[in-house]
Amino acid sequence: MAAMTTAWAPAQVAAVAAAAGMAGIALFQLGIALGAPLGQAAWGGAHAGKLPTGLRIASGVAVLVWTCAALVVLRRGGLGLHATPEAVARWGVWILFGLLLLGALMNAASSSAWERYLWAPYALIVSGLCFLAAVGDWT
Asked: In sequence order, what are the residues at sequence separation of 6 or more whose Cβ sits closer than 8 angstroms to the Cβ of residue 68?
């Protein structure tokens, strides 16, 4: 019996990798929303230890935003929510590319070493993956 194999296009691999990167961001945000003492690694790095309540709530909202972003990228890769219109996925990935690129620049300019040396390159990589997913051949 011959095994069936399906070759993924490079843009699909990029979409899955971008979604995984966004899941990583969502998990980090979940951790700090639940009280992990990593305040210096988020929201400008102004709060050592646990974040204040307002920023913990914002991190909880960020979990939802990054989860939705990952689903949009997966849809663009042809792997997720087919109830989401293709146009939303197509434009959404371009918007995510731009926002992540902006986030990388903002993190690079941060006074937080965590944001400069971890989150800036992380966001730049995920942004690049979104770009590859956005320009992929989807015919």
From this structure: none
| Predicted local confidence at residue 1, as pLDDT | 54
**Runs of H (alpha helix) within the chain:** 10-33, 53-76, 86-108, 113-114, 120-135
Q: How far is CA 99 from CA 6, 45, 96, 103, in A?
A: 32, 19, 5, 6
Distances (CA, A) of 36 to 41, 44, 58, 62, 76: 11, 16, 14, 15, 33
Cα–Cα distance measured from residue 79 to residue 72, given in angstroms and rounded to the nearest whole number: 10
Burial class (CB in 10 A: 0-12, 13-18, 19+), 139: exposed
CA 46 – CA 49 distance, rounded (Å): 10
70-124 residue pLDDT tens: 999 999 998 877 778 889 999 999 999 999 999 999 999 999 999 999 999 999 9
At how many degrees (to 10) do helices 53-76 and 10-33 cross? 170
CA distance 136 to 111: 36
